[in-house]
Amino acid sequence: MTDQLQQRILAELEKIVLIDPHTHINPHAPASQTLADIMGYHYYTELAHSAGLDRLDIEEPGLDPKEKVGRIVGQLDALDNTIQVSWLLEMCVAFFDFEEDAITADNWEPLYDRAAEKMAAADWESQVLQQSGLEQVFLTNDFDDPLEGFDTSRYVPCLRTDDLVFHLTKAETRRRLAEATGIEAADAKSLETALGKLFEHFTGRGARACAISLPPDFEPVSVDASTADAVLGAIASGRELSREDAKIASQFVFWTLAGLCTEHRLPFDLMIGVNRGVYEEGVYQGQDLFDQRTSLFIYRRLFNAFPRVTFPISVLAESSNAELVAYSWIFPNVVTNGHWWYSNIPTYIESHCRSRLEAVPRNKQIGYYSDMYKLEFALPKFGMYRRILAGLLARDFVIARRWSEKRAVDLGRQVLRGNVERIFANR
Amino acid sequence: MTDQLQQRILAELEKIVLIDPHTHINPHAPASQTLADIMGYHYYTELAHSAGLDRLDIEEPGLDPKEKVGRIVGQLDALDNTIQVSWLLEMCVAFFDFEEDAITADNWEPLYDRAAEKMAAADWESQVLQQSGLEQVFLTNDFDDPLEGFDTSRYVPCLRTDDLVFHLTKAETRRRLAEATGIEAADAKSLETALGKLFEHFTGRGARACAISLPPDFEPVSVDASTADAVLGAIASGRELSREDAKIASQFVFWTLAGLCTEHRLPFDLMIGVNRGVYEEGVYQGQDLFDQRTSLFIYRRLFNAFPRVTFPISVLAESSNAELVAYSWIFPNVVTNGHWWYSNIPTYIESHCRSRLEAVPRNKQIGYYSDMYKLEFALPKFGMYRRILAGLLARDFVIARRWSEKRAVDLGRQVLRGNVERIFANR
Amino acid sequence: MTDQLQQRILAELEKIVLIDPHTHINPHAPASQTLADIMGYHYYTELAHSAGLDRLDIEEPGLDPKEKVGRIVGQLDALDNTIQVSWLLEMCVAFFDFEEDAITADNWEPLYDRAAEKMAAADWESQVLQQSGLEQVFLTNDFDDPLEGFDTSRYVPCLRTDDLVFHLTKAETRRRLAEATGIEAADAKSLETALGKLFEHFTGRGARACAISLPPDFEPVSVDASTADAVLGAIASGRELSREDAKIASQFVFWTLAGLCTEHRLPFDLMIGVNRGVYEEGVYQGQDLFDQRTSLFIYRRLFNAFPRVTFPISVLAESSNAELVAYSWIFPNVVTNGHWWYSNIPTYIESHCRSRLEAVPRNKQIGYYSDMYKLEFALPKFGMYRRILAGLLARDFVIARRWSEKRAVDLGRQVLRGNVERIFANR
Question: With a CB-CB cutoff of 8 Å, which residues 151-180 of chain C face chain A?
Answer without folding.
Answer: none
